[in-house]
Amino acid sequence: MQWAVIFQEANIVAFILLFFRFASLFLAVPIFSHKNIPMNVKAAMAFFFTIVFYSSMPSITFEVTFPNVLMAVLSEFLFGLCIGMVLLLSYNVITFAGGQISFMMGFSMASAIDPQSGVSMPIISQFLSLMALMVLLVLDLHHWMLLYINNSLSTIPLGGFIMSEDLFNYIIYATSRMFLVGFMIAFPIIALSWLADVIFGMLMKTMPQFNLLVIGFPIKIMVSFGVLIATFTATMLIVKQEMFEAFNALEMFF
What we know:
By secondary structure, the chain is mainly alpha-helical. 74% of the residues lie in helices and 2% in strands. The chain contains nine helices and two strands; from the N terminus they run ααααββααααα. A two-stranded antiparallel sheet has the order 1-2.
């Protein structure tokens, strides 16, 4: 008798929608969306957590028809993508700052494939991105997201997510804040690099034999690395604060 209830049409559709909610989470949210995680592993994880959360799965509130199910699936994908966008905008603060630092250090051409996003980025951005990822793991971001999905089941019906105006406005605000905080993180190195350029320019005027390419650039890189090491803890604390604010902003989904 229990198996007959499980395999009812409404329960099967609800199971599929819950699976797509977890699948969109693993496609968009930092840590889960890591490019080094194979797609079949992500699909298996989504299926596993769908089974785990099946007991707390709410019943669907719409008539089971093909157009309704299709719109519900798109709604679940939109739900996961919006969560991922909110968190990625906060996470990409460090990537943007790393790009500015690499440019000032002369490392813009020294690029490598980032394992997190799968795109080419300067090595300073990649280093800071990996360190920020370690911070997110220490903060149990992956556990927070699972708890968030569990809480969303009781407040956001399956297939019932609608992007609100407040969420759209917050995404615009988070985008502008990404550039602002990114410049703030990179500012110490940018300011010292500009100061070093002024000093080197004065030296070249007073001592024409001063070779900027041979002496100036290594000194500039050494100073930049020193400032980067000195401000590393503060940088990670800023990333932590940005992620906390992003998680608090996820309450607007409810």
